[in-house]
Prior knowledge:
Blueprint: H1 3-25, H2 29-40, H3 45-51, H4 58-96, H5 117-131, E1 135-136, E2 142-144, H6 145-148, E3 173-175, H7 181-189, E4 194-203, E5 214-224, H8 229-244, E6 250-255, E7 260-269, E8 291-300, H9 302-307, E9 316-323, H10 324-332, H11 339-342, H12 345-348
Parallel strand pairs: 1-4
Antiparallel strand pairs: 2-3, 4-5, 5-9, 6-7, 7-8, 8-9
Helix pairs in contact: 1-2, 1-4, 2-4, 5-10
This protein binds adenosine-5'-[phenylalaninyl-phosphate].
Amino acid sequence: MSEQAQSIERSLSTLRATFRGRFEAASTEQSLRDENAKILGKKGELTAILKQMGGVPADARKAIGEVVNTLKQEVEAAFAERLATIARAARQAELDAPPFDLTLPARLPAQLGHAHPISRVRDEIVDVLVSLGFAVHDGPEVELEENNFTKLGFPPDHPATDMQDSFWTTGGMLLRTHTSNIQVRAMTTHAPPMAFIAPGVVYRRDDDATHSPMFHQIECFLVDRQVTLAHLRGVLAEFAERFFGAGTPVRLRPSYFPFVEPGAEVDVGCPFCKRPDGTRAGCSVCKRTGWIEILGCGLIHPTVFESCGIDPEQWTGFAFGMGVERVAIVKYGIPDIRLLFENDPRFLAQF
Ligand code: FA5
């Protein structure tokens, strides 16, 4: 045998002895394909061997050719087998991985927030009263006793002035117990006529299903010449009509507040048990009466005008103050005022 033929046979037997191990060592499809190219590719080892065949004598060429072909087929088969093994392993790894949890909730688009129901009701009330011609007047929540009580005609021993009923700070100041302090502030700084509303936060030592220690009120007052109860009643009826809906009845019940004379509490017809003919059946919300109280009102007392430097012989006026939470409870049928302050998103989402 020629030297050339012997050299080719040595190369072939080395390759035969090593190619399976080289394929086994490749753990990914890419490294396996690289290894295969090193043997069978254009510049591969087997291709290089074939190129040397020209120098082999004709009698030996046929036998070596057969060996080369057989080896080539073995390499191809081993490559295909290893490729299939790697693919199976990859699939198994996928199957063994933790499964997708199909019960997880889908990702929802971001939820948009909205104004708190108290803010919404306050804004709706303000809109109605502004549309009737009242301007908004602001004022402090920490107030002097004289603006919150004294100039409004509260006697010094009135229960509201008690430590048990109001939150006192220092220096004769307290957290205002109502928005009526704005009557005093407006009347001491503005010359009549005037027509203001004052929305704001107020504080009392109260805490139960219908009373909160912090709540919102809207004060409304008008000072002009010859103002009568008829003007007050007209504004209240128009407010009820626009805010609670057409045909909502209003009634005034005599009541007492030191800063008005006469004074009254105002009820609106219960919106929850209204029959189609406009009468009320009575329900748990209105405590079977067909009426719900929403505010206190009256004609401004002459002593309030005097303490604010306005001549009560010349000027008259009406005032009312309503609880925003109370109105919200009536409008939306909310059973407990505290729900409005807990801020549970499931509750707030209903508005
Ligand atoms: C007053 O506060 C008077 N300043 C109202 C007023 C103004 C009368 C002008 C005359 C002229 P009263 O204490 O009744 O009144 O409160 C008015 C409203 O606030 C009540 O009708 C009720 O709706 C609401 N309210 C009172 N206390 C609470 C409380 N603790 N929590 C929630 N709402 C309350």
